[in-house]
Amino acid sequence: MTAPSQRPPIGAERLPASPAQSGIWFASISGTDPTAYNQPLLLRPEVPLDHTLLVAALDAVHRAHSALRTTFELDPRGDLSQIVHGVLDPIVEVRDHTGPDPESWVAEQVTEVAATAFDLHSGPLALVRHLRLAARGRSVLVFNIHHTVFDGMSFKPYLRQLEAAYTALADGREPAVRPRRQAVDAYAHWSKRWTSAGVPDHWRQKLADAPAPSPIGLPGEGRARHVTRQLALDGRLSERVGEFCRAESITTSMFFVALGFVLLHRQTRQDDVLLGIPVTVRDDGDAEVVGHLTNTVVLRHRLTADATVRDVLRAVKEQVLGALRHRHTPLEAVVADLRASGTELGGADDLFNTMITVMPSGSRRLDLREWGADTWEHVPGGAKYDLAIVVDETPDHYTLVVEHMSAAADGEGFTAHLAQRLRTLVETALHSPDTPVREMRWTGDEEERAVAGFCARRADAPQLGSVLTADLFTTGAEATPAAPAIVADGVTTDYAELARRAAAVAAGLADRGVRDGAPVAVLMRPSPELVVTVIGILLAGGSYITLDADQPTERLSFTLHDCGASILVSSAGIDMAGVELPQGLELLDAPGASHRGTAPGGTRKSPGDTAYIVYTSGSTGRPKGVTLPETTLANLVRNQEILSSGRRMNTLQYMPPAFDVFTLEVFGTLCTGGTLVIPPASARTDFEELAAFMAEQRIERAYFPYVALRELAAALRSCAVDLPDLREVYVTGERLVVTEDLREMFRRNPETRLINAYGPSEAHLCSAERLPADTDAWPALPSIGRVVAGVDAYVLSDVDAAQRAPFGVEGELCVAGPVVSPGYIGLPERTRRAMVPDPFVPGQLMYRTGDLVVLATDGRMHYRGRKDDQVKIRGYRVEPGEAEAALERELAVDAVAVIAVPAGGDLVLHAFAQSDAPLPPDWRGRLGTVLPDYMIPRRITRVGAFPLTPNGKTDRRALEAMLDADTVLDGGDRADAPDAEWTDAEQAMADLWLQVLGHRPATPDVDFFEQGGHSLLAARLHRLAKEHCGSGIGLSALLSVPTVRGMAQSLGGDLGIGQPDLRHEARLPQLAVAERRPPADGTVLLTGATGFLGSHLLDELQRSGHRMSCLIRADSAEEGRGRLRAAFRKFALDASRIDEVEICPGDLSRPRFGLGDEYETWARGVSEVYHAAAHINFVAPYHTVKHTNVEGMRRLLEFCGVNRTPLRVISTLGVFPPDSTASPVVEDSVPGDPASLGIGYSQSKWVAEHLVRQARKFGLPVTVHRVGRVGGHSRTGACRHDDFFWLQMKGFAVLGCHPEDITGVPSVDLLPVDYVARAIVRLSEGKPDNENWHLFHPRGLTWVEIIQAIRAEGYPVTPVAPAAWMVALERQAEAGDQGGGLGPLVPLMREGVMRLGDISFANEKSASALADVGCPLPPADTGWVHQMFAYFRTVGAVPPPGGAPLEGHSV
């Protein structure tokens, strides 16, 4: 890459970009969709056009308009410039149609043209394709012009002038295209107008506390695609819109914007929503200007409780008029201003995700008489927003164009529904404008029928309510009396024997008056006797309550008193000590094999009577007894038969008796002719034993709670057991999160299907999803499936108003029908709230589950969590399950539970990870690649196992109690363990950590920075420590050992405890270096490729023709590739060749990189290694950065030693200690006594370089590149946000001052990052191994030049005393404003630990070598400073000149 020439091409002029062009340019070159800002359209002349004349006419028009001759380039100052060429003709193509169906062919051509990716640097930025339809004697013109140079209002003058030029040429005349005003003049006027006024308070007041936009659409995974649907309003409806707008004194734009707000309110269920609209900034005289004179303004609407459509219209009118008064402020400037005032925004997409554009017919009226064209046709371009609505007005009707980004399988169908909803809103608003918004009809008949069809399944079970479960069992047993019914302890009981024994139980109970659903309690462990008893209870006409013998005696006592049972059947060996029995309770022994009796005849109960009672945990701590009727149980049996396609299956009886799925195991098997297999008690908790048992017994069907299934999957992955007979695995009880263990389990058993079953205890089975055979196609969060037969399940957006949620809208799942429990025992108020009358079916009960789901267009329901689980973190709505799925996937732990906990007046997430292995030290960084920062847990506590409820679900209350008691700690330690004892000083320091981090440290030895600490928090902790402890300790000393114990000892005067023995750390006693065997087809291995310099090294190495592989911390190659793409986007690099990079998913700091058996293959297969990975942090001590910078180096030396692979190490000039280094420092100088190195990063690099020197002695070829200041890219200015030099300049600009003595310090030895990367590669390739090189600019930029450049950027910085400057930085940091960037480092500066001394460096040898390899040092250029400012302004990291202080990034 080379910097652009300071002079434009011959015949071209360099001009400033317009206020809006910079943002569009940056989004176009760094965004994921290069076509996002294309502007295609279709024109249909009524006559055939001569192609030669058309080309000439196009050339004439394009040469007349500066905008159409424009390309873009970053100029030497780093600002985006327009390059206006003297001639830049458009791309003109011609295609002839020869086959059938011309309209389909035209559509294909339009799609192809719209997908053009323009080169904004080289141009041209316009493409015209001439389609000739010979059979029709007509031409069709397809245009595509990039939005940076053209807006929607430019098409009218453009097309009119094109027709006029064509007509003139056809008549033999020269076309007279003479614009009265050029775009560049209009841009200059716009820029002057807004910069002179600055960002108005209007936008800050309207948008400062705006919520994050809610997602729109169906759940889906993978890459989103752009979907478009159109719907035309008929003539009469369109006419009514005009009449209504005139009557209300509003424009049609206001009308449709108001309906857009209503759509968002209803779709997202949020009362505070925002959307964007385009507005023209054309002033008088600009009507005929061709160019980009459009800005985006953001509107906001807060919906009040009873607001009507008319209320929304009034509010929108006021909003639009206010926005138009301030329309000249560019959107990028508004976003930067909001960020500067403290609003957490990454860009405009963090503010709104919906855009509405209304195209009035007048703006498109062409009257092209010669061509016979009255208007043009809108063609959707690329995707810029989640939802874009275009209202296309023609003289006689409106067309609604809905564009949607969707990753869902049926994104097309959902988008069509969105278009229909908008049409329905139009009708409702016109008919009933005074209807409250929340009551407006907004879904069409077709969608309502589809929703009802998927959710109302009661009628699909016509036999429901006419069958008893006991009769189903009896019928099946009589049909196959000799078939095996139960297998336990090697003994098989056939159906005849089972029926005989159950009949005996029934006879005994009937004699005791059991009938009509009377409850009978059962206290037994899983056994054939337990199964016999519950069947016998049903045969007698009673209902059963199965108790768990392992439950606490208090719970057993409560259940027996609460359920109303007068009989308890219990087996010998059950310890009843401590259980308080109700007065009058009769105790019966479990039935033995010798019991005899005949089941009572006659009708002893009805389908409406209770079949069983199950107890669930209550929100108040009191268990709730749920009564379920016979209808529920019978429907359960029928649906199980449907799900298993009528097969008789060997079914594992795994569930505890008190869990309601026990009922499904027993009756879903024994009423369908299957065999119930009861495992030994030990196999229920030993999952390797359970796997072996399932294989031995040829289990075909099993039911598991989610936690147990994960344990089984993990056991199967580590043992050699296969389950070839297994066909169905049902998971229930908790949200299913697919893990790699689960995928592997089903890959190894390809005939097995996983069924995600959903059903609350109050209704049992309601829906089920059978996952496909291809486990790679499984989403991380599978749906809970479609509603099963016999159940009505409604998704209600408003339960009280009985409003059904349409497709894609979150709502509460409510289950209705005869399967619903009549209520809770002894809890009438709770029953009244939960079991309500069905608003859709008279006489039917509806149960409010409290579960939030989204209904997809295929009828599948996607679980979103509990109503009471969702929390708001920093204004964002967070569903903990989403964070749990990401943590499990990224950190490769067995299971995760996330809860929200208070911290410093806000809520933060706290995660519990079940894992035998320690968490990776970089877990925050890993999560940062897939989660926004507000969803990354503040802390993760590792536990050996999750506490479970009696039903096998994760007990979240117990987890919260662990935090409250502060007993469960990272790593599974406990606070009362001997090594976790706390001294008084440590307790006091832990209290300070609590104030700063929002949580107490788990042990005295956890690392501050690994607990979420960063530089700003470290500075805050330092201040608190000085205030509360009366100590003058320095920040560096306090952080020398960044643990509670280390800090407490430092405050106690033991300041030597944390000083590392660097000489000892740098010892390398041995290193095995094998003989070199050249790889047959070796690649270059790069570490640190996702970092700043590393990503540019990858870019340079690829450009040099190398085959590349990158070692990246990731669980998969695809995840690693995604991290690379993100880095390239961040630093504005071309990511088109990322797919060519081979990803090595590993961890530099783990033994053998965590590659296992592939380690040797990798070590012998690479030709050379570039090592750019490093933990760069100026505040973190050696203790923290050692893991990556030192231990990582040791691992890499071992790796390269396997095949004597040449290693190129990126080091720093900072390895030379200020007090033990003689000047000048040349390439062969050796870093001396490290005692005066005050920064942990420099200390770690000192150790690493000494390790490298010793490795050379063992015969390993190592080249060391010591790098000085690395600046932004020479062309784009892209740079690290936490670069020290940048933070210095940013601090000067934002604070408006600089320390007066800085102009006397040495020059800044800055080099652009792309040059540094190129120099490293050239030296490594062109010079011998085992050399040291110094990469810095020998002259550099003086601070006088840098200060002048900052002022030239428009920042009026003035000199102040150094102490005053530090105070300003410190105050800014203490106020929580990181705009100065360096504030947290002030204590270190005061202590002198960051001093570099008076060392001078030399690099004559390196400069000569660089010239030899064709990469001479460039002249120092203040343009590098300008380009960095331009980049950071573009990404919103620094305010424009005159802007408010900006919140930045911690160091």
From TrEMBL:
Top-level taxon of the source organism: Bacteria
Family matches, as CDD domains: SDR_e1 (cd05235)
Segments forming domain Carrier: 980-1055
Alphabetized UniProt keyword annotations: Ligase, Phosphopantetheine, Phosphoprotein
Cofactors: pantetheine 4'-phosphate
Protein name stated in the entry: Carrier domain-containing protein
